[in-house]
Amino acid sequence: MTETPGTPAPRRRGRPARAAADGGPGARERIVAAARAEFAEHGYDKASIRGIARGAGVDPALVHHYFGPKEQVFAAAVEVVAAPVLEAPDIVLAGGRDEVGERLTRFFLGVWDNPVSRAPLLAVVRSAIANETAAAIFRDLLSTRLMARIADGLDIPDARLRAELAASQLVGAALLRYVIRIEPLASADVEQVVAMLAPAVQRHLTGE
Amino acid sequence: MTETPGTPAPRRRGRPARAAADGGPGARERIVAAARAEFAEHGYDKASIRGIARGAGVDPALVHHYFGPKEQVFAAAVEVVAAPVLEAPDIVLAGGRDEVGERLTRFFLGVWDNPVSRAPLLAVVRSAIANETAAAIFRDLLSTRLMARIADGLDIPDARLRAELAASQLVGAALLRYVIRIEPLASADVEQVVAMLAPAVQRHLTGE
């Protein structure tokens, strides 16, 4: 950290010459932002604490001080990246039960359809698919922060399993449409895709 | 595989000392097998023609002679790995239309439930998700060899798109169950999962 409060500093390259011991104001947020960029560019395996520290303009020891080892830095980055998706339970549980499938499908595809929210999510998903440690972090987040909350709001048997099958429909559609880009799915109008997916999601969530 | 017919040979390490110019009998198959192992272990980006040649006990030039550049070697390996999944159109199109969703779901989950068929498939999927070139090869195979054939056999509007949405349900379920391993989906009885997924797949394929 080389800036003083209230002084916008240019983007740093290389080792900072004079790093404040606490990284200065906003250091934690800068580290998380740098971690997102590092994991997105290099994937979980090749991302390094040193690279994250360099991107944030802080000493590597400070990254460890704030977050601990690499998996904890990844967890913090995933938390921020997944924030839009973690709103899903509120979407599901607000409003009429008959349109829950349509609301969740439109919300989820909306997040993926927007390149700004898609890019960091895709980076997280790629890391989780390639690396077991990243998968475990992603799984815990999905389980405790997303699936459990949705399931708790659905008063039906096997709610947790049903919520996961609904999620599997949406995750698979996002994968084939936005990552593998299989046609005609990749170029189909998003509202047509919503209309065709929503009944499947609805059926999983509420059993018809 | 490094042996010649009838002569069990020890697994070679390093550069082969006396490689036959044509790689000897079965060289093509040995190269594909070595390519599968190389891509599975290192991923598309880090896999090398040199490593594949070493694994097959042939000269790197022979790999290029048989297949061309790395993407063509990958395509050949994917072809072999995906062979079980490419039987899906026959499964879909044989037998009664009312059980097409159940047949396809049981077949697909059966391939993924078996560690022997799952491991190489997972390696291909990981490469396709991590690398654009690998994604294009995987996409072409899925499109021309799987989706087009299923769609051609379904006499309904938007058959191609419907087949892809059915596939997205199955791919997403495989991803969450076998790769991310989210619970309770990961530990659920496979027949329970088939019973819960089949109606969604059926609806996509035949519109109820």
Automatic annotation (TrEMBL), chains A, B:
Known Gene3D superfamilies for this protein? Answer: Homeodomain-like, Tetracycline Repressor, domain 2
Q: MF terms per GO, please? A: DNA-binding transcription factor activity; transcription cis-regulatory region binding
Keyword terms, alphabetized = DNA-binding
Positions of region (Disordered):
1-26
Q: Which residues form a coiled coil?
A: none
Q: Which residues bind DNA?
A: 48-67
**Annotated HTH tetR-type domain residues:** 25-85
Pfam families (alphabetical):
TetR_C_16 (PF17920), TetR_N (PF00440)
Q: Which InterPro entries match?
A: Homeodomain-like_sf (IPR009057), HTH-type_TetR-like_transc_reg (IPR050109), HTH_TetR (IPR001647), Tet_transcr_reg_TetR-rel_C_sf (IPR036271), TetR_C_16 (IPR041678)
Checking PANTHER family in the record gives: HTH-TYPE TRANSCRIPTIONAL REGULATOR RUTR (PTHR30055), TRANSCRIPTIONAL REGULATORY PROTEIN (PTHR30055:SF235)
Protein name (Swiss-Prot/TrEMBL): TetR/AcrR family transcriptional regulator
Q: Which organism is it from?
A: Streptomyces morookaense (Streptoverticillium morookaense)
